[in-house]
Every structure is written in C-alpha cells, then in structure tokens.
Amino acid sequence: MKKPCQYITDDTQGSGVTVYVIGSGANIDHDEFKHLDRKSVRFIFADPENNKKREDKQIHQGNNSPLGTAVLSKLCGSQYGVSKKVTPVIVKVTDADGKYNFLNIIQGLISTHADILLESKRNADAKFIVIDSVHVDDVPTPVTKPVYKDFYKHAIKRLSNMDNAIFIAGAVVQEKKDQEIIYSYPSILGKTPGDYPKLLVVGGVDQSYKAIENMEDWIKTYAPANDIVTAAGLPSQYLSWDGAYIAAPAVAGILATFISKGKGGIEEALSQLDKFAYQRGSTGLHRRVVYNGVWEDAKGVKFSVPEEARTEWDEWEYDAEFCRACTESNGVQPINHVVWLPGDCPCPEAGSSRGAS
Prior knowledge:
Elements: E1 17-23, E2 42-45, H1 67-76, E3 87-92, H2 102-122, E4 127-132, H3 146-160, E5 165-170, E6 173-177, E7 180-183, E8 199-205, E9 221-224, E10 228-231, E11 238-241, H4 244-261, H5 265-275
C-alpha cells in the first residue's frame, strides 16, 4: 500500500451480530431506519403494561430528546450508523407511565440474558452486543434497598461473563465532589474488570481528541462524544448529542464490524479494538481513541496527527486479515464516520504518507 489506509464500508458490516439496546425504546419509523425491515425489529418489554413500539422520552443530563432513537441511529442508522447490518433488539425498560423503574431495569437485563441463551441454542455461532443506555441516576425514584442493587449488579455480571457477548456502557458522571468524580451505574462497575470481564466502558473525547470529563485510568476505550448528529423524535428530524451516552453505540458498531469481518469472535474483536486505539496528542487528557472521522467528511479531510502522538505506530503490525477490505480509494467513498481517515492510519505500510493532508 502506497497511500494511507482508507477502510471501505459495505452493506454487510455487522451481519450476523445481534445488538440489544436497553433503554426507553426507539422510534423505528424514523427515516434513518428505512433500510431495516421495521416490522421484524424485535422489542422486549420489561413491563407488559408498556408494550408500545415507541420511545418514552426521558431527561438525560438536561436533554429530553429521545436517547434510545439516537443510540440506535448511531449504531445502525442509514446515514449516521456505523454497522448497518446488525440485528437490533429494543429492550424497553420504562413502566406504564413511561418512566424508568429500577425493577424494570433489572427485568430488562434478565430478559436480555435469557434471550441470548435462547438464541445461542438456536445458533451456536451467534454473537451478541448489549448497549445499556440507562444509568441508575436517571431513575426518578432512588434505590433504597441494597438487595435491588445487588440483583442489578448480578444481572450485569452474568451478561458480561458470557463467552459470546459484550456489554457496553458510556462512562457517565453522576456527580463531582471537590476533586472526586463519581460515576453512575453501570459504568462504575468497570472499576472491577475481574468481576465484569466483558463490560466495556466508553469514555468521550471532544474535537481536540481530549477526554471530556471521564479520564479515569480504568476507562480504556474512548470515542467522539461532542456534537454527534443522530436521529431525533420526528421521522425526518436530526439533532446533535454530547456525552459518552452516544459514544458507546459507535464503539458497539465498530465491534460489530470487527466480529462480522473477522473469524475469531468476541475476544478477537475486543483485541482489535484495543490494537487500533491510539492517542492523538501528548497531554494527559489525550486518551486512546478507537473511533474517528465523525466531525469531518472522509472524502475531503485534511487531518494531521501530531508527531508526538505517533509513538505507538512504530510498533503497529500490519494485519492482512483485518486490512483485506482496505484499498486505495479509486473513487469509492471511504468509510464515513467509522475507523480510518486518510492521513490518520497507523499502518507502517502507509508510513511515507502519515499525517499528510
């Protein structure tokens, strides 16, 4: 390869991977989901009295726009989605009043685990990703009984210990006390990876590729989380989001792509995710980012990675299996909003063009 990698997307990305989106539902009649067979999109309802295939709006950090619809569009939307061929399953955990209920959240997690077991029996090679867009501090009624939180943690532990599943959550800050940052559940569980081995906590970076506020050492995975365009409430409406809430489904889409393109399954996909992450700056706020390109058009990008951010590139090994879909552009649109941009590829085969505009 004489030019920087330009990873090519196609309509098979995510094929064969089932992704559960746990939250307040999703509006699948949005234009962003026209490519889906919307009648066949499955819903799991934690509360049988709330079985409407629509999203119940919640307040997320002051934003009352439909987060579930946004998460789904970042995962598999036709314009802004990363992995369009995943099989989405919407796990709705709001109650009959359209509000989050802690017991319903637990039920949603348990139902997701049961569904994965059932689907695994039908297809032993099936692979799954669970995106949890619900955080405990979003629940109007605080959890007062420790046993409920124990049930909740146990449900996540079971999911994150499955051989064929990955559990993903954004690193959401609940509150700040002086110099201490307290994270919301489930992201705080990422502090003990031994108990939750396949719980992937995703932090957010802004356009300078610096961590926004979640820069703890136990958070290993970062993605853009500022001014991210997604589907909104009305069928043709779009809006922008800030926060790790919306970084998580992007990373889920990358993992689904790795799983569908690779041969090694879950462990290989997680290994590739870690392998392709690197810092794009030298400050303490510059963290290893696994996803880029969201703020610029991949066709006309002029992007230069600082020299000090390229230290890991010298150790990067060319991966022919992964890069088999990596070609010179030849007029074909490089993957938009997904993995590599021209001039931002660690492949040593592209060394002479690194950082070129």
